[in-house]
């Protein structure tokens, strides 16, 4: 059974249909890059997977849990998929370590000492083991994003959704974040990333999804998608015309 | 006719001042508690919770406080409930304060970036948990200056309760004026007392705002 099963998903904002019937199955351990022009629906698709947007048609199931609007089910689902945002969205009033601890203690009811141990371990994993007590405002963008990754990992999700996680970073800080993601991929974490980093998509991903006008326009292993794009839209997107 | 010394006037005003302070405190604390409920209803996901809260706020913000006092004082009398002035004053001011604080706080909650809601939601937190651990701690910081600032309005608002016969500072001033025939001195002193209550509050509000602004610049 696939970890994430997306079937004929439709989503509209008002009159505008943003997703026009998306089908996509993702196996455990896969690393998926979703690429496409802005407005193609790639971020919306990602946000639908963990219920930040409610879908208007079709179905999404994560590890057998169907994504619906129901609160208890949403909670169960969100324990299975973590999300990392373009703007980091760290909690500014809490230290890096507390950011990573909060949902563990509140949502999973993990005892404080245990949550602290996990937080230290996760911060260590993203190379910030020595910044437990730093406030977000004291960290660089790259460091903040790594804390956000640690925060998501601490919940032990089955998959991570990454929504353009390097787009808000200064160029010199992109590499440190991508390196962390690359390491996660190598360790077998299921990743779905909306990205503009084509080199990253080429080197790290098992499959690349090209979205165009609310549909999966082309899909395949990176060699095929980047090496031999079949459609003119993808060729144009890749600047190959 | 007896002569009144300045000390007689001050002494009697001071005696009434405590009722102004007490009424202000009751209004502010009671209004704060109900205001918090109004806030939660106002930002609830469900429409049937939001709508009454909105109506409540609009009603209390859109009518003079004096009318609200009259309505509580005389209105309950229509149902055969005789309301003492202090109770009517307390109830009306609590409800009035709650409406304003609820709305002030709503603004503060809505000033928190949408990303904070999304990040906490994506970690599986319920709405109540999000409010408790993520949104309110941040909103509280920005809410403090306007809240303290509004307390000045509450203190001054208590003066209106003199009209329904509650003997606080203003009413005491009127009574003393009737006995002394020195309206300028008496009301001048009354104003001074109000100022002595309100000025430190405004000052605190401004101080907190500046302090907050400075710490905000570090971002």
TrEMBL record, chain A:
Keywords attached to this Swiss-Prot or TrEMBL record, sorted alphabetically, are: Amino-acid transport, ATP-binding, Cell membrane, Membrane, Nucleotide-binding, Transport
Q: What are the annotated GO cellular component locations?
A: plasma membrane
What CDD domains does its record include? ABC_HisP_GlnQ
Q: Name one Pfam family in it.
A: ABC_tran
Subcellular location field: Cell membrane
- The main place the protein resides is membrane
Q: Can you name this protein?
A: Amino acid ABC transporter ATP-binding protein
This protein's species is Jiella flava
The record lists the lineage as: Bacteria, Pseudomonadati, Pseudomonadota, Alphaproteobacteria, Hyphomicrobiales
Automatic annotation (TrEMBL), chain B:
Q: Which PROSITE patterns match?
A: ABC_TM1
Gene3D superfamilies in alphabetical order: MetI-like
Q: Kindly indicate whether the keyword Iron belongs to this entry.
A: no
Give the keywords, sorted. Cell membrane, Membrane, Transmembrane, Transmembrane helix, Transport
Q: List the molecular function annotations (GO) for this entry.
A: transmembrane transporter activity
Q: Which GO terms describe its biological process?
A: amino acid transport
Q: Which residues form the signal peptide?
A: none
GO (cellular component) term, any one:
ATP-binding cassette (ABC) transporter complex
Q: Where is the ABC transmembrane type-1 domain?
A: 17-205
Segments traversing the membrane: 20-44, 65-96, 184-203
Q: Does the keyword Transferase apply?
A: no
InterPro entries, A to Z:
AA_ABC_transptr_permease_3TM, ArtM/GltK/GlnP/TcyL/YhdX-like, MetI-like, MetI-like_sf
Protein's cellular compartments: Cell inner membrane; Cell membrane
Q: Topology versus the membrane, per the UniProt entry?
A: Multi-pass membrane protein
Spell out the family assignment given in the record's similarity comment: Belongs to the binding-protein-dependent transport system permease family. HisMQ subfamily.
Name this polypeptide is given: Amino acid ABC transporter permease
């Amino acid at each position: 059974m696939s970890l994430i099963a997306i079937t004929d998903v439709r989503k509209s904002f008002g009159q505008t249909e943003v997703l026009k019937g998306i089908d996509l199955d993702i196996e455990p351990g896969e690393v998926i890059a979703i690429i496409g022009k802005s407005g193609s629906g790639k971020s919306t698709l990602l946000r639908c997977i963990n219920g930040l947007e409610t879908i208007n048609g079709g179905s999404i199931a994560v590890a057998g849990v169907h994504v619906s609007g129901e609160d208890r089910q949403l909670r169960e689902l969100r324990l299975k998929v973590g999300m990392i945002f373009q703007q980091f969205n760290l909690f500014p009033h809490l230290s890096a370590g507390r950011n990573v601890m909060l949902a563990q203690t509140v949502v999973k009811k993990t005892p404080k000492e245990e949550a602290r141990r996990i937080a230290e371990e996760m911060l260590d994993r993203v190379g910030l083991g020595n910044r437990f007590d730093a406030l977000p405002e004291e960290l660089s963008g790259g460091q903040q994003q790594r804390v956000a990754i640690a925060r998501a990992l601490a919940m032990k999700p089955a998959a991570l959704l990454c929504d353009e996680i390097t787009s808000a970073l200064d160029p010199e800080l992109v590499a440190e974040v991508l390196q962390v993601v690359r390491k996660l991929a190598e360790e077998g974490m299921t990743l779905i990333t909306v990205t503009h980093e084509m080199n990253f998509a080429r080197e790290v991903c098992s499959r690349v999804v090209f979205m165009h006008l609310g549909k999966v326009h082309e899909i395949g292993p990176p060699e095929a998608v980047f090496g031999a794009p079949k459609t003119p839209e993808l060729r144009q997107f890749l600047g190959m015309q | 006719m007896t002569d009144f010394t300045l000390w007689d006037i001050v002494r009697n005003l001071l005696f009434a001042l405590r009722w102004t302070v007490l009424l202000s405190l009751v209004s502010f604390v009671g209004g704060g508690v109900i205001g918090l409920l109004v806030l939660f209803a106002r930002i609830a996901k469900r429409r049937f919770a939001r709508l009454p809260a909105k109506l409540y706020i609009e009603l209390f913000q859109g009518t003079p406080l004096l009318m609200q006092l009259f309505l509580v004082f005389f209105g309950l009398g229509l149902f055969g409930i005789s309301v003492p002035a202090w109770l009517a004053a307390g109830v009306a001011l609590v409800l009035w304060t709650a409406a304003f604080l609820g709305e002030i706080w709503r603004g503060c909650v809505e000033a928190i970036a949408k990303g904070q809601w999304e990040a906490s939601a994506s970690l599986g937190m319920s709405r109540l948990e999000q409010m408790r651990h993520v949104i309110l701690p941040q909103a509280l910081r920005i809410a403090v200056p306007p809240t303290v600032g509004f307390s000045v309005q509450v203190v001054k608002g208590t003066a209106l309760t003199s009209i329904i016969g509650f003997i606080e500072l203003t009413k005491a001033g009127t009574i003393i004026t009737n006995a002394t025939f020195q309206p300028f001195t008496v009301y001048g002193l009354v104003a001074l007392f109000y100022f002595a209550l309100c000025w430190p509050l405004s000052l605190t509000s401004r101080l907190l705002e500046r302090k907050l602004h400075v710490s905000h610049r570090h971002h």
